[in-house]
């Protein structure tokens, strides 16, 4: 039931916000804040309580599960489940959701209640995407997060918001269409084969597919997720959407929505079609590397600070794509780290860019300069996140990027070397941004206040998180270990699927609740 | 420390300086313990925690102290402490006093992590941290965008080397399955035959990193510009931290380099070439700090030559002595520059001998040590060690390197004393202002004493039974460099002294007095061209600018709009166009509609008939 609460809390918070928004704007903000704080507490509690157990997403090996029949004749059920990977993503969602509410506190003054309703709806959709293991339900949440996001950009965005919102919508909707075709094809193939028409993720995993059909379906999934990621030639929606969205929207887009693409690849595209995935791996890795280099070079070319940060996302998510299709533990664990740390570092950079725009009413770096003198705290924060973004060791992003590259190197040396060159370009854009905005002489006579208390707290929380992840990433790595091991196992022998081992393990664990870890190990050995 | 802006300066200085002083005291105490009771395994080690644990990849945050890292930490902390002490008053009144000390402490901290790390990943952390701090400190006066550019250049150029080093790490892990330095040493020796492709590739990639950090060819261009930072920063970068990291890396990974003789040969060539090129450039500079910068590049060239022939100990010895005299020279130059109201040009100095006697004498001490004119000085001792070991190297390359090294001795002395004579002799041109500060004097004097007499630590080894520093370090290497033949060593030492004296005399003739010769030389056609060429650091900057920077900038400018987006925009435009066309047909004129229907019907019929 806890899983349902994870979806319900933001929904309820949003509804409450829109009701309270009629009375006072602060009440609406407070409602959303409380909801997200509750969400974070719930997710963190779930994480703290999970210990070292093996909840790997193997059949039956979920940390928690919720399954109600929904549209029985079509085989659709309201089926939520959580494993290590989705747990981490949900924690990240709650954390960034809280921050998104906090940064909107002063920025949003129009239709505050409605804004928070949309914000909470997006968050609920994202949490749903991370939890759903019924493909129909997954697609439902996938669309649920898209539409309120469109309105967030279109209604509360900046000067060119309408065009950007439409562009965002068209790109992701077309990707969604490909995804839907893939889902339906798989659904019917499985139904014809087994006689049981179901959207259940685990059941569909057992489908045997002809190579050609499998490849086509996989491409449908891949396309849907690659647009969201975004992979190299499908990225042009991203700079526009990120730049024009309000700060909270940018934080959610970069920090969370891009992760749904990566999550989709890890959860669905690869495990459902291990064979086809193996086949396109070199292509996918090459696309990832192209994204790394192209995104970094484009970031450097920008003069709009938000656009610059937006293009860095293309570059960083290239590492994710490269890592996923390397199919080894090092790279996959690196992918998880990269997803989380990119959410934090890029989210923070968008927060800072938003604060700058709020104060200076411009995003053009050519019109900034010398801001350090007026706002040293902000400058130091920007420096910190710029360093995280270029992969400075000691900060979380380094762990992710290094592991991805280390893993990719074992699979494909030239691509790994090319991706490493991306680190140099990352250096260039990161310090170029600092140089233009914070160093040098002011281009115009600005007066602006430094970080306020609330803003400092937001930034500080992200700084601490990145430092911790950089120096001691083990809690995250431990949590994601089991699902990633399952994935590598699946990729190393794509045909056979170990269903029975985990059911036994599950039975053992429920029989002997006292010494779960010990029995878990015993069960795994049998 | 970053919040230190609000703290009073005294407190900032106490914290900043005190922590480094504590580190220095601790490392001296450690050195005492280490020498008095050498640990049985030859090292102390301590694992703090496991950094990460992924599928058997378990780099730790672990520290290891052996003879090599011991020498490094002692030199780093002691020199850094003296520089910090100097900075207390030197930087007084600067905006961002707290920020300065925070960065400096971080710098020293990263360098210590670098030299104490027991695995390459942690070493890489220190390595990048040092790069970051150099970026922050070179650009310390951020309001001037030229400084910012210099800082960016330093960071980006060294990151190029770092990327190569990162690939080296991947390669080592992929083939040896570990990044632990001790394990690498044992496994590499077992798995890679001498000269094998993997060993060569690994060594070459690590060399890429070392070349970047240590400002050797072809990545040396950042260092002369790094003078944009405050003088104590230059002292720290050039003496104790940053540029010596590359030397340390090669000495530390000597096993891998021993397995790759080709790369060792490359190191000798790089070292010798860099040494000569930089020495030539040093001879024509006007800015006193740029002379010192090129001198650093040149001296590290010496260290690389030593590393290339496998004389790890001699390289580290030269690092240690260089740290002291170069820190001294930079700090003294800093005093000169500050007293003259931020004047960097040596040709506008002169006659400062009388105005700044303490600075003069200490600077002279450093200069003598650098040029190795007097055989007892620290610099002379370590340089002689390198010279004699190069001479004894059994290869042809070693012979050539020896000749280069001897030429280098002459050039070194020439540019050093050119600098001394221009700055402190001749007619006085400026008036030194401000008063002498004790906190600046103490480090200068202490450094001068070490620089001048530091050679004694080596010299009387036969007399006191004191272990030779070079041997001490060599003990950590796989194959210690052999003992030098005594008579030859003395002869080489004498020859080197003679050469550097020659340089001194030449400098005196050329630059004391009216300086007619250099002016005439620089005025002539070829002379002027060479002068310009050397002044600009052999055109590397221009080459890279043309070859890399401009194409990159141009590409960025052209593609600012993202050509991928053009494709999608074109789809959108096409749709709008079609929409407009179709919309025009909706004209409301019945005649057109009727015509349309008729044409459509005819076409349909035609199609049906034809098919």
Protein architecture, described:
The complex is a heterodimer of chains A (526) and B (611). Helix content of chain A is 76%, strand content 3%. Chain A contains 21 helices and 2 strands. Chain A has helices at 2-20, 25-50, 84-107, 112-131, 135-156, 161-194, 201-205, 211-228, 237-244, 247-272, 274-301, 305-324, 329-360, 371-374, 376-389, 396-411, 413-437, 453-471, 474-492, 500-511, 516-525, and strands spanning 64-71, 76-82. In chain A, strands 1-2 form a two-stranded antiparallel ribbon. In chain A, a hairpin with a 4-residue loop joins strand 1 and strand 2 (76-82). The longest helix of chain A has 34 residues, at 161-194. Chain A is globular, with a radius of gyration of 22 Å. Mean pLDDT of chain A is 85; it is low at 494-526. By secondary structure, chain B is an all-alpha fold. The radius of gyration of chain B is 30 Å and the shape is globular. The longest helix of chain B has 32 residues, at 145-176. Chain B has a two-stranded antiparallel sheet with strand order 1-2. The model of chain B is unreliable at 1-6, 459-467 and 477-485 (pLDDT under 50). The chains are: A mainly alpha (526), B mainly alpha (611). At the A-B interface, helix 11, helix 13, helix 15, helix 16 and helix 17 of A face helix 4, helix 5, helix 25 and helix 26 of B.
Q: What's the total count of β strands of chain A?
A: 2
Number of strands of chain B: 2
pLDDT below 50 for ≥5 consecutive residues: which ranges of chain A? 494-526
Biggest interface and which pair forms it? A-B, 54 and 53 residues
Report the total helices of chain A.
21
Q: DSSP helix count of chain B?
A: 27
Strand order of the largest sheet of chain B: 1-2
Helix content of chain B: over 70%
User: Helical percent range of chain A?
Assistant: over 70%
The helix/strand order of chain A is HHEEHHHHHHHHHHHHHHHHHHH
Relative strand content of chain B: under 5%
| Element-by-element helix/strand order of chain B | HEEHHHHHHHHHHHHHHHHHHHHHHHHHH
Q: How far is the N terminus from the C terminus of chain A?
A: 31 Å
- Low-pLDDT windows of residues of chain B: 1-6, 459-467, 477-485
Distance between the termini of chain B: 86 Å
Backbone CA Rg of chain B: 30 Å
Approximate strand percentage of chain A: under 5%
Label the structural class of chain A: mainly alpha
* Biggest sheet, spatial arrangement of strands of chain A: 1-2
